[in-house]
Amino acid sequence: MSENLKDTGLSFDEFDERRRPATVTTSFDDVLDRAQSRRGFMKSAAMFGSAAFVMSVWNAAASKAAGRPNFDFVPVRANTLDTVTVPNGYSWRLLIKWGDPLWSDGAPFDDQSRGSGRSQERAFGDNNDGMAIFSKGERHVIAINNEYANRSIIYGNRASGLPETADDIFKGKMAHGISIFEMTDKSGAWAPVVDSEYNRRITADTSFEITGPARGHEWLKTKADPDGTRASGTFNNCGNGETPWGTYLACEENFNGYFSSSDLSYEASDTFKRYGIGNRDWGYGWAKTDARFDISKHPKRRAWHRKPRFVSILGSRRLRSMRPQWTAPNGSLHILVRQRFTSR
Q1: DSSP track, 301-314
Q2: What pLDDT is stored for residue 330 in this prediction?
Q3: Is there a contact between 123 and 144 (Cβ–Cβ < 8 Å)?
Q4: Which SS3 state, helix, strand or coil, does residue 177 take?
Q5: CB of 63 closer than 8 Å to CB of 69
Q6: Given CA atoms 6, 109, 113, 92 in this order, what sign does their dihedral have?
Q7: What is the percent of the chain where pLDDT is above 90?
């Protein structure tokens, strides 16, 4: 298929559909068909799910018959207002927005330049997704996935709407990852605690320790890490979770859109093609300044075997007894192989 994917206006889904069109039947469907018949599957599902299904339908029907809504609030009507619309009896306030400094040495957000790499490194990231709050007593820490950066917004100072300098690229990398900060209730409104010892940014350049059974595997060894025990960066963090022992989990997706080739005639391997990796990326240009994202420079590099993954964030030793635990500046990172967040 043609690698002519210069239309940076494509959504990520459209990009993937052009790069590797999805088949009607997925690989998992094939596996499932081989593993068991549809009848057997339905029989197994019925054993575990029929009771829950019946009760759910019964409760919904009973509510409808009694004229009661299924929610304890009146749903809001769809609208195009430039605000957060909530039901009567509810309110919302801004907690933090993209580019807000988490430390006092961070530069205030500049609407004209959209910030620099350095300012973004010390500030809240872009595009929120999964998140979790960890509390102990009167102190509260929130971890938020910054899945990706809106190119047309973060590079809105550029006519192309794309990174044009090395610092632009660095800024994009720093907008990805995970933002962690302490927050406090000030007169009924939550606000970040600037300079808190628990504030932290985890980005596309953060160094990780690889743990678990995959540690040291041949597929994880690279020129930069011949032991296969370290990895660099996390990005496109979507789903999240909390473990029973109080750590934060972030799950990556869509990693294929960050790799590209400086040699546009390079023929990607079947493995690359299977993952949707090709000579062009989504427009972030990371391979221009970071060789680990250039597939033509490192055709045998094991970087793709490190993706996707779950990232587990642990607190410092002195906080390990807390449930849940917090993430401290000297905490460790382990790989186990839109603009605003509001709080009402």
Answers
A1: --GGGG-S-EEEE-
A2: 37
A3: no
A4: strand
A5: yes
A6: positive
A7: 47
Other Cβ atoms within 10 Å of 223 Cβ, number: 11
Closest CA to 142 of 133, 150, 151, 129: 133
Instruction: Indicate the SS3 state at residue 44.
Output: helix
- Dump pLDDT digits (tens) for 49-95: 555 555 555 555 555 555 555 678 888 999 999 999 999 999 999 99
d(CA 171, CA 284): 10
Cβ–Cβ < 8 Å for 156, 171: no
Most trustworthy range by pLDDT among 56-65, 120-129, 201-210: 120-129
Calculate the CA 20 to chain-centre distance.
Answer: 22
CB 297 within 8 A of CB 260: no
Does 75 sit behind a cis peptide bond, omega within 30 degrees of 0 on the bond before it?
no
Per the CB < 8 A criterion, the answer to whether 129 and 147 are in contact is yes
Tokens, residue 301? 């590099």
**DSSP conformation class of 102:** S
> Under a CB-based contact definition with an 8 Å cutoff, are residues 296 and 321 in contact?
no
β-sheet bridge partners, residue 340: 97
- 47 burial (CB, 10 Å; 0-12 / 13-18 / 19+) is exposed
Strands (E), the chain: 93-97, 128-136, 139-146, 177-186, 189-192, 200-202, 207-210, 230-232, 237-242, 248-252, 310-313, 333-335, 340-343
8 Å CB contact between 164 and 289: no
Please write the tens of the pLDDT for every residue from 228-262: 898 888 999 999 988 888 889 998 988 899 999 99
What are 276's two structure tokens?
Answer: 């949707």
CA angle, residues 269, 265, 12, in degrees to nearest 5: 65
Q: Among candidates 193, 264, 272, which has minimal Cα distance to 20? A: 272
In sequence order, the 6+-apart residues with CB closer than 8 A to the CB of 306 are 210, 220, 231, 335
Distance, CA of 74 to CA of 87 (rounded, Å) = 6
Report d(CA 232, CA 237) in Å as an integer. 14
